[in-house]
Write a structure and sequence with these properties.
Elements: H1 20-35, H2 41-57, H3 66-84, H4 91-95, H5 99-106
Helix pairs in contact: 1-2, 2-3, 3-5
Length: 124
């Protein structure tokens, strides 16, 4: 991993111990690559759309693409129940349909992120 990344991700068998920054790195940068050979095409496309939407919402210079992020997230939520089953639908999944509104109101999602403080959790 390039040194620009705050934390090198651990192996997938340690996913239950990952920090939020490791999930972020996986979602935005490496997840679409490492999951391509192991996920079904339907599952991979579902993840890929979510990844692209989040990349747009975390970027300060991508506001002209907010309509694409909204469409990708609406599609993600709509297909979530079909792909994974209704028992896994939560308020967090539904909340994704409103996250583009937050981008329009507050700007990129990093504007209201707690990531800069994650490494200090043990000492707070």
């Amino acid at each position: 991993m390039p040194y620009e990344f705050a934390r090198k991700p651990r192996k997938l068998d340690e996913v239950n111990r990952w920090k939020a920054t490791e999930f972020r790195t996986f979602l935005l940068y490496i997840g679409t690559i490492v999951t391509k050979p192991v996920l079904t095409d339907k599952h991979w496309k579902h993840f890929f759309g979510f990844s692209i939407a989040m990349l747009i919402l975390l970027s300060p210079d991508k506001s002209k693409y907010i309509h694409i992020a909204r469409k990708l997230l609406d599609n993600f939520v709509k297909n979530f129940e079909i792909i994974y089953g209704p028992h896994l639908i939560s308020h967090n999944i539904h909340g994704l349909t409103h996250i583009c509104d937050d981008y329009e109101k507050f700007g990129p999602l990093d504007n209201c992120s707690a990531f800069p403080f994650e490494n200090y959790m043990g000492s707070l």
